[in-house]
Amino acid sequence: MNVRYRVELSQGERGELTAMLSKGKRAARKLKRAQILLAADAGRSDEEIARAVSVGGSTVYRTKRRFVEGNLERALSEDSRPGAERKLTGKEEALLVATACANPPEGRARWTLELLADAMVRLTDHDSLSSETVRRRLAENGLKPWRKDMWCIPKVDGEYVARMEDVLDLYAEAPDPQRPVVCFDESPVQLIGEVRQPIPAEPGQLERYDCEYRRNGTVNLFVCIDVHRPWRKVKVTERRAAEDYAHCMRELVDVHYPEAACIRVVQDNLSTHSAGALYEAFAPAEARRILRRLEFHYTPKHASWLNMVEIEIGVLRGQCLDRRIDDPDWLRREIDAWERQRNAAGARIRWMFTTEKARAKMGRAYPVTSKES
Predict the structure, then answer these.
(1) Which residues neighbour 57 within 8 Å (Cβ) at sequence distance 6 or greater?
(2) Residue 50 and residue 58: Cα distance in Å, rounded?
(3) Looking at the domain 158-359, which fold is it?
(4) For the segment 147-161, what is each residue's pLDDT rounded down to a tens digit?
(5) CA 20 to 30 Å from 337, out of 12, 116, 178, 355?
């Protein structure tokens, strides 16, 4: 026993340490130091304490010394650990970040940790640099140069803002049965079948299916959703040509909203989404009859997130289509069942983004003009 640092706890200190151990809601190192102090107060030797608490003898020695030379709080706390000196200076770290953000070497598609380490050795006085050092410095700056995302980068100009606010204002309007707002879009679906029969799930065993599959072509989904009431419609077609689009618009007018005076349709800028598509599909008089009851509102380019139906398509894929379906008729039956259940449940999309929020959150994205508003 190390007699130089004899631990003698007061009754209050013993109670505090005992309560700390009983709760167990502290860091593991602090709990171990509490055990060391209680054991030392009970007269146990350093070797016994080290074995019982599963720590080294030096940890027991330091904990007792910090208590005797300081107090209980100091004995339970942990000294800061300075660690090894950073391999890269501030200027060298800035050089690493700049290099990672620049084009990779000729013949390489992207930077790797090894390439960056080699580049830093050439650009600095370091004889060597580990990939782990590079990784840590990049991680601190939120960089992963070996990864990149494909993204639709919009051009935010006056046209973008005008279309965005037009759509947001439609969403914010009070429901009007005579002037419903319908979001419209389409989405392709692959018909995929099993090559081997899946093995059903059973207690203790997940369902298993083979990684090999069979493609059976594709179909298209035309999806409509009413902004102000819990209604959606999904139509499965073999293609998404202008004629198919035109027939969807006629169904909106004649089947789904026969009593409405004007149906306001929110859609994207696909070339088939136009009045001309109806003239390609129908006689001029019929096309004009349908168009008199339609009003098109277009989302900005590269801003599909503004179309509420995109959320509904995501729900459809997650709830109904996240499996292998290889037959168009089977797909139609499954989608029809999903559609009926979701309509019957009164499911709606709760849209929270408004024109006021757009101006507040996207103020910097709005075009800057010299005129006073």
Answers:
(1) 46, 47, 50
(2) 9
(3) Nucleotidyltransferase; domain 5 (3.30.420)
(4) 777 666 667 788 888
(5) 178
Residues 6+ apart with CB under 8 A from 74: 66, 67
Q: What is the 3-state secondary structure (H, E, C) of the chain?
A: CCCCCCCCCCHHHHHHHHHHHHHCCCCHHHHHHHHHHHHHHCCCCHHHHHHHHCCCHHHHHHHHHHHHHCCHHHHHCCCCCCCCCCCCCHHHHHHHHHHHHCCCCCCCCCCCHHHHHHHHHHHCCCCCCCHHHHHHHHHHCCCCCCCCCCCCCCCCCHHHHHHHHHHHHHHHCCCCCCCCEEEEEEEEEEEEEECCCCECCECCECCECCCCEEEEEEEEEEEEEECCCCCEEEEEECCCCHHHHHHHHHHHHHHHCCCCCCEEEEECCCCCCCHHHHHHHCCHHHHHHHHCCEEEEECCCCCHHHCCHHHHHHHHHHHCCCCCCCCHHHHHHHHHHHHHHHHHCCCCCCCCCCHHHHHHHCHHHCCCCCCCC
Query: What ranges do the domains of the chain cover?
Result: 11-76, 90-140, 158-359
First-residue to last-residue Cα distance in the chain:
82
pLDDT digits (tens, 9 = 90+) for 196-228: 888 888 888 888 888 888 889 999 999 999 999
What does the block give as tokens for 230? 């819990």
